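Suppose you are handed only two things: the residues of a chain and a line of SMILES describing zinc ion. What would the bound structure be? This form records exactly that question and the answer produced for it, so the two can be stored side by side and reused later without any lookup.

QUESTION INPUTS
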Amino acid sequence: MSESLAAPEKNFALDFVERNRQALALLSDSVFYFGELGMQEHRSAQLMSGILEEHGFAVERGISGFPTGFMATYGKGSPVIALHTEYDANPSNSQKAGVAEPAEITPSAPGHCEGHNVNAAVLVSAALALRHAMERFKIPGTLRVFGAPAEEQLISRPYFVRDGYFDDVDVAFHDHISSDLRTDYGLMQSAMVSATFTFRGESAHAAVAPWKGRDALDAVVLMDMGVAQYREHMMPTMSAQRVITNGGEQPNVIPAKAAVWWYFRDVNAEGARKLFDQAKKIAQGAALMTNTEVEVEVMAAVWPSRGNQVMAEAVQRNIEAIGLPSWTEEEQSFALALQKKAGVKEEGLRRRPAPLSGPSKQGSSSNDSGDVSWKVPMVRVQFPANVPGISYHHWAAGAALATSIAHKGGLAGAKALAASVLDFLRDPALVAAAKEGFRREIGEMSYRPLLPEGQKPPVELNAVAMAKFRPLMEAHYVRERPVFRV
Ligand SMILES: [Zn+2]
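ANSWER OUTPUT
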């Protein structure tokens, strides 16, 4: 046993996770086969929060108006330590576990193709290990475990922050799947505003009397052209992506309604906001040209995720002590076959933790945990439950998610998370150092939500798709309920 894991409460927590490896795997697989899209993670949230409740957590469901969000609290007093993660899937990414070629479980259904199912299992396993360690070793403090819906649409956590759930939090931990056992500090990801632009005109027979119509789809197309022209003048750090979510019904009807959904990103919140403001002007121009009206609805708005250095260094010590799982020949050859099929470097699974090499290189992706990381010191624990080199949101990224690779990687993640949280529960000086470092790190930047005031969560998002596919997916659900034992 390495020095940094030698404390009896750590020993207990790591042993708890290890003894409950079957429950961790079952929970991870259950969420995998639920395959629930953002805002519709009813079964995933119910299972996770139910288990926490059975182990003495006080659970508040529906926080900030999110039917699939929850907060589970254990203990009292300081420090207040938040653990949070996501558990949503993506559309059309149904992929059979352990099959190294495209193979849908349910045709065209949603599926996990990143690994938020393992995030969920790691969160719950670590929280339970911590909670029982706190009781056994009489460790004061509060654990606040957040279930955060709709990460793939970057929705929920800015609402939680806005609504005060993090006001008295000392430090926060986010667990996320990776192919590495690693952590980072510094700016990791980008800020983003997600908004739908709905244009309304008037329908008409498109062949007989098109002059009577006001074409909402024309406005969507013109907005698209306007943003395309504007790309020349965007800062190189800015980017914008879109899908047309409503392009009309059929060609002989002038579309009275059309809609486009945009993501606007930049390295900081101000830049994302500026790009969004410009896009609103372009949308107004498109509406003016087509005699239509436009309505803009913000779906999500997030700050760029950042990691706290003091926390990352503490996590790194645990990561190095825990190490990578020992992979079997079978697991390595599955990873190699998957890498070959996906056309990426055939390097197998990782054997050693990634060194801490901050500050991190800021990536172009975003995560809705960004707002948390500007409110309080936050760190991300990444665990090796997927195959290196495979890009997410692709069938290949779903293939390992309900196999022993995900289970063993998740186990390492839960241990790293539990051990790191214990460091902060046990050492007020470490909490103080993280907070002091945080103040230095954010400097002059004062956090204010990008999210418009009074904004309500889009609770209907993905409801139709999930209602269509859920009955077909139920046949594949895991029947056994995960049971964690003390
Ligand atoms: Zn993710």
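WHAT STANDS OUT: Residues 114, 116, 151, 176 surround zinc ion (CB under 6 Å). The chain has a mean pLDDT of 96.
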